């Protein structure tokens, strides 16, 4: 009853009543319901009384200030623009999710009339909120429901400052004889008992006994045993949470489970399942999941075997709904006791022990911490001012074999672990954490093939987070009127995904033109636009709206056994005459790839140069000619080459594709083969070019390179500077000589400027733990640098191959950076 009264308070608030008047309202609703001479169930009776009460005050308005998110407040205010009957119809059915049959009876309307109200209200709301898609409107109202559930109304026992509207409400509805609230509760229970008793009296159906039943039938003994099992699980869950019955029954997951239990063991359901005991048992298993604590849910799977994906999805759906509610419940307790929470404690990892640091803990806080393992939660511990905030603990589930074999659980669970990613005060995670979250969400929403109910939750999460990173709190996005660097990088990174690029690319262009201060496209962005782009992507209609997104790529696999470049010889002859890029417009990327290698076969570095995309690393034509050496002949080293539509990838404004290549030599090293597998990129006019990469490779032993490295080492030891164009391989050999000579000064001189110098013990440990020692076991060194990334910045990596004991191999990976003095090494903390 207490939970139902709280629902009615929120119902009044949703319909425009001031928050401080809702307590008076519910007391008057109870009194009004007590006077009704109907046989309706208590819930319907109270809602009908509430609707009648509200109907007398159609002009009630509130500002929705208790609602956390701006877009949800806008939805709330839009609702208040509706006539009161339409408003209540939408709130009951579309926002609060009550069945149309219940809502129409509460408003004393025929169902057809109720549906007419709903349709009319939806049209008016869509116009008010400027939403064209009815599905988007439905989502918008679902978001509002979530916000309303988080609204904290004033305590019911607090003194109420009555307004004229409240006075009027009391005068008009003051009963001649007031009945105590407890009488109303008792009357409601008696009414409900009468209904149940009557149903039972007329119910002559009975399941067969074990001796009467045939194979596969549900027996009375089985049903009795399972009903008893539910009661035992319910009592056990209550005790594990350390809750009294009143508090336990107020949880929505408990109320839902109790309702489901009553329906499952009703006459109609038992009769329906009398010949299918297995199906009834499966539904009973789900019922147990519903009533268990989160920890108990995990334990219920510990000894069970393989589960179908749809059952696992349902388990996760129930688990997340439950932990969402318990997270809100626990956070409210922690918030109320925030001053008692220590700023730092070694016990936050084991909250049951945290009580040792809180000698004067309140009873509710002590109860929460004592039962902590059952809640499936963890402290965030990221902000000392918000120690009451929690995340979901998914470790228990991740360890279960069912989740380890589920193809998508590893993506769903981490997404919800940190949800919500923000609150009214700002971000709860670092913005760069959202890159992985968007990657997982988009895969699940677009490519994950199962029809999981969890996708609805992910879709809501996707839209809310995208709105927050673009039009959320100014303090989180801007600093002194300019978009923060970390948000700029986040936007550019996310533009690699087509549904986000469709919105972000024009925003970024306009922001860059204004010094990252203003964008008309961002100003015009509306809530729901991100879902519209997502829908177009799901339907395969988005790419045509993007730069180079409508390129008609042809997937193709070409066998190179007898390949002779005939398909590109004519194009090669025409392109070589003028190097006119327009000749390449619309040419398939695989043909540009073959054109590049045909020029290599013809020993034509100038044509190869003009087929290379612009790059910070790309040398002048004269330098390229001077340094040019033929790369391995494609047809002599590979079996086949393939390009597929699925290989295309957007990198900010560029679209990239990298051919798949099968090599003649099975043991050919990746870096040695890389010249045969360059990326192809297009940025405008459907012109594909070969991405330039600076590559150097040395197969050990290489006496000449070792000699050059020693000379470079000696120069540095004599405090001389190396030429700025010193090869990165020479720089690498100089580092190896310095480590071999235990010369920390030279080793430190080869680090990126600003890096703290390391002592000789560090370099000894580095050599020992990373196999970097001497030259006897060195097998190869390869270097690659590219600026194909969202910032067009140079990324360089070095790979050193060592042979270690037992003919095994060790690959040492290092990052390099081009500085004013030439190539130098970046040092990472893991070293």
UniProtKB/TrEMBL annotation:
Q: Which UniProt keywords apply?
A: Coiled coil, Membrane, Transmembrane, Transmembrane helix
What name is this protein filed under? Uncharacterized protein
Residues crossing the lipid bilayer are 181-202
> Origin organism of this chain?
Planococcus citreus
Which positions are tagged coiled coil?
216-247
């Amino acid at each position: 009853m207490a939970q139902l009264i709280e629902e009615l308070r929120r119902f009044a608030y949703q319909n425009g009543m001031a928050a401080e008047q809702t307590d008076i309202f519910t007391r008057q609703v109870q009194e009004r319901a007590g006077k009704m001479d109907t046989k309706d169930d208590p819930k319907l009776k109270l809602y009908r009384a509430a609707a009648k009460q509200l109907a007398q005050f159609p002009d009630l308005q509130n500002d929705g200030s208790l609602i956390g998110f701006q877009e949800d407040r806008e939805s709330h205010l839009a609702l208040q623009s509706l006539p009161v009957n339409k408003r209540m119809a939408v709130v009951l059915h579309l926002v609060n999710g009550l069945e149309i049959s219940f809502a129409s009876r509460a408003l004393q309307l025929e169902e057809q009339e109720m549906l007419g109200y709903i349709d009319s209200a939806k049209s008016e709301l869509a116009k008010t909120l400027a939403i064209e898609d009815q599905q988007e409107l439905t989502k918008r109202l679902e978001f509002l429901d979530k916000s309303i559930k988080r609204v904290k109304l004033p305590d019911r026992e607090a003194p109420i400052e009555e307004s004229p509207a409240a006075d009027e409400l009391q005068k008009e509805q003051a009963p001649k004889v007031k009945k105590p609230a407890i009488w109303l509760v008792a009357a409601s229970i008696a009414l409900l008992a009468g209904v149940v008793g009557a149903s039972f009296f007329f119910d002559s159906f009975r399941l067969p006994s074990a001796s009467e039943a045939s194979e596969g039938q549900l027996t009375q003994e089985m049903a009795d045993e399972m009903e008893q099992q539910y009661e035992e699980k319910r009592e056990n869950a209550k005790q594990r949470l350390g809750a009294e019955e009143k508090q336990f029954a107020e949880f929505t997951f408990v109320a839902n489970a109790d309702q489901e239990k009553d329906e499952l063991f009703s006459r109609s359901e038992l009769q329906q399942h009398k010949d299918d005991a297995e199906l009834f048992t499966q539904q009973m298993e789900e019922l147990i999941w519903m009533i268990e604590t989160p920890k108990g849910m995990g334990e219920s799977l510990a000894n069970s075997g393989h589960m179908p994906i749809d059952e696992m999805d349902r388990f996760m759906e129930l688990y997340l709904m439950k932990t969402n509610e318990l997270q809100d419940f626990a956070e409210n307790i922690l918030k109320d006791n925030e001053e008692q929470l220590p700023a730092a404690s070694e016990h936050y990892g084991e909250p049951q022990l945290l009580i040792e640091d809180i000698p004067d803990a309140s009873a509710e806080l002590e109860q929460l911490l004592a039962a902590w393992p059952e809640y499936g939660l963890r402290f965030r511990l990221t902000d000392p001012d918000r120690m009451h905030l929690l995340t979901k603990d998914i470790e228990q589930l991740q360890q279960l074999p069912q989740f380890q074999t589920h193809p998508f659980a590893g993506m769903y669970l981490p997404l919800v672990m940190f949800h919500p990613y923000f609150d009214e005060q700002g971000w709860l995670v670092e913005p760069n954490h959202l890159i992985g979250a968007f990657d997982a969400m988009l895969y699940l929403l677009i490519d994950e093939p199962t029809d999981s109910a969890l996708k609805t939750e992910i879709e809501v999460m996707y839209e809310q987070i995208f709105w927050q990173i673009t039009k959320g709190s100014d303090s989180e996005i801007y600093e002194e009127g300019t978009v923060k660097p970390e948000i700029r990088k986040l936007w550019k990174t996310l533009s690699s995904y087509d549904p986000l690029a469709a919105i972000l690319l024009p925003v970024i262009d306009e922001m860059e033109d204004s010094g990252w201060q203003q964008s008309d496209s961002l100003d015009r962005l509306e809530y729901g636009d991100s879902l519209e782009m997502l829908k177009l992507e799901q339907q395969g209609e988005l790419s045509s709206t993007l730069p180079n997104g409508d390129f008609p790529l042809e997937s193709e696999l070409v066998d190179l056994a007898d390949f002779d470049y005939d398909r590109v010889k004519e194009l090669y002859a025409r392109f070589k005459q003028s190097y006119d890029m327009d000749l390449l417009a619309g040419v398939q990327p695989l043909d540009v790839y073959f054109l590049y290698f045909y020029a290599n076969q013809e020993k034509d570095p100038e044509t190869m140069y003009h087929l290379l995309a612009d790059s910070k690393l790309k040398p002048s034509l004269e330098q390229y000619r001077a340094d040019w050496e033929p790369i391995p002949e494609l047809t002599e080293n590979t079996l086949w080459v393939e390009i597929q539509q699925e290989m295309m990838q957007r990198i900010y404004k560029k679209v990239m594709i990298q051919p798949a290549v099968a090599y003649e030599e099975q043991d050919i090293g990746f870096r040695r083969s890389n010249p045969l597998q360059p990326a192809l990129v297009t940025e405008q006019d459907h012109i594909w070019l070969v991405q330039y990469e600076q590559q150097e490779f040395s197969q050990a032993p290489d006496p000449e390179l070792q000699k050059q490295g020693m000379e470079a080492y000696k120069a540095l030891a004599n405090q001389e500077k190396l030429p700025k164009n010193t090869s990165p391989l020479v720089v690498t050999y100089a580092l190896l000589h310095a480590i071999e000579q235990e010369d920390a000064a030279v080793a430190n001189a080869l680090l990126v400027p600003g890096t703290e110098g390391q002592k000789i013990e560090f370099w000894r440990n580095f050599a020992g733990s990373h196999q970097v020692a001497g030259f006897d076991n060195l097998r190869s060194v390869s270097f690659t640098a590219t600026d194909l990334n969202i910032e067009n910045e140079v990324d360089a990596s070095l790979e050193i191959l060592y042979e270690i004991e037992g003919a095994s191999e060790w690959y040492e990976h290092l990052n390099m950076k081009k500085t004013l003095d030439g190539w130098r090494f970046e040092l990472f903390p893991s070293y």
